[in-house]
Amino acid sequence: EESVEHVSSMAGRFARWALEDEAKFSYLLDMSKHDFYTATHMLNVGVGCGLLAARVRPGEEQFLADVVQGGLLHDVGKRAIDPEILNKEKDLSPQEWRQLQQHPVAGFEQLREAGNASRIALQMTRWHHERLDGKGYPDALPGQKIPFSARLCAVVDAYDALTSGRPYRQAIAPLDALAMLQEGVGTQFDPDLFAAWREVVEGLIEADPQRTFHRPADEPAPQLTLDDIFPEVPLDARREEEAGQQGSQQNDRRAHVRLPVQVPVVATFLHQCKPYPVPVGKPWEAQTLDCSQGGACLLTPWPLARGDVLEVQLRVTSKDGRERVVRRYAVVRNVHQRGDDAWTAGVRFVENPQDPYRL
């Protein structure tokens, strides 16, 4: 009943907004013509931001109205992005990624020039892709410098992106999406806001399990593949950014959201920093413990050494049951012991194993 009241209240605001501010409300219709998924996503995020705002700031009617408006408009800047880029099934090129990264600023400028967007809506539009660790865009704001409303929008935006079907992957079940996003809490997402959003989602599922596809508690979580990983900065673009940081050897293990992907790995040494039971060029077996587009954590039978270069073949299963092999060059960045006879190695994927950037 409480959720119905929230939705009814927001529905009234939607109706008043459509009547009182036709020009701004029409942005949603314009986006629907440009890219239907983005328009649907903006509606979902608007509703989700309203539910989360009502949870964390109950009774603040103006804040709730502004947050709903900001959620509905947060991706308006994508009208300037080619729909083929928005729906591309393969990884974006560095140039395409840089173009996509312009949408928060484009939307912010568009709303600011219109002159009638709330301050909160402007904040959410410009900064919903910022991260707590300062590695977001467009302004790389860290921590509390990111406005509260934008941090709120970031959680709902990422959740809806995962739970919505896309041309390049199927929709992910709500509880599985929450588990995936949990990996970014504290580095990408505000812990308190994420915890509140988890309560909202779990409460909705408990109240009406039919409202969403829900994996039963006794059913094992699906094995995630590389295709399920949250969209991230393409490797080439990240290399260009980090190449400008002279002498940087920062371990970027959390620069990407890492997910618990446990798949077999066939590894082959291309360069060894110390002797091993297997020579260069001979395959051996390992397993991933987690993985991202930029790297992985491998469970290995021996302690590897920082600077070792490998070719790894990750065996993954597509949603339709087809098995495929993903090949990557990898450079060992850190090593830790795990039990008496097992170790973990954090590796970074690179395109060229001879590239000095790897070290």
Layout: helices, strands, pairs:
Layout: H1 2-20, H2 22-34, H3 36-56, H4 61-73, H5 83-86, H6 94-100, H7 103-114, H8 119-127, H9 148-163, H10 174-182, H11 191-207, H12 235-243, E1 264-271, E2 283-291, E3 295-300, E4 309-317, E5 323-337, E6 343-350
Antiparallel strand pairs: 1-2, 1-4, 2-3, 3-6, 4-5, 5-6
Summarize this, please?
With 359 residues, this protein is α+β, with helices and mostly antiparallel strands.
Number of helices: 12
Task: Report the mean per-residue pLDDT as an integer.
Answer: 75
User: Reading side by side through the largest sheet, how are the strands ordered?
Assistant: 1-2-3-6-5-4
CATH class categorisation of the largest domain: Mainly Alpha
Estimate percent helicity.
40-55%
What is the number of strand segments?
6
Q: Say what the CATH topology of the largest domain is.
A: Hypothetical protein af1432
End-to-end Cα distance: 57 Å
Task: Walk me through the structure.
The chain has 359 residues and is of the alpha+beta class. It has two domains: 2-211, Orthogonal Bundle (Hypothetical protein af1432), CATH 1.10.3210.10; 228-358, predicted glycosyltransferase like domains (Thrombin, subunit H, Beta Barrel). The chain is 42% helix and 15% strand. It is built from twelve helices and six strands. A six-stranded antiparallel β-barrel has the order 1-2-3-6-5-4. A hairpin with a 5-residue loop joins strand 5 (323-337) and strand 6. Helix 3 (36-56) crosses helix 9 (148-163) and helix 4 packs across helix 8 (119-127). The longest helix has 21 residues, at 36-56. The N and C termini lie far apart (57 Å).
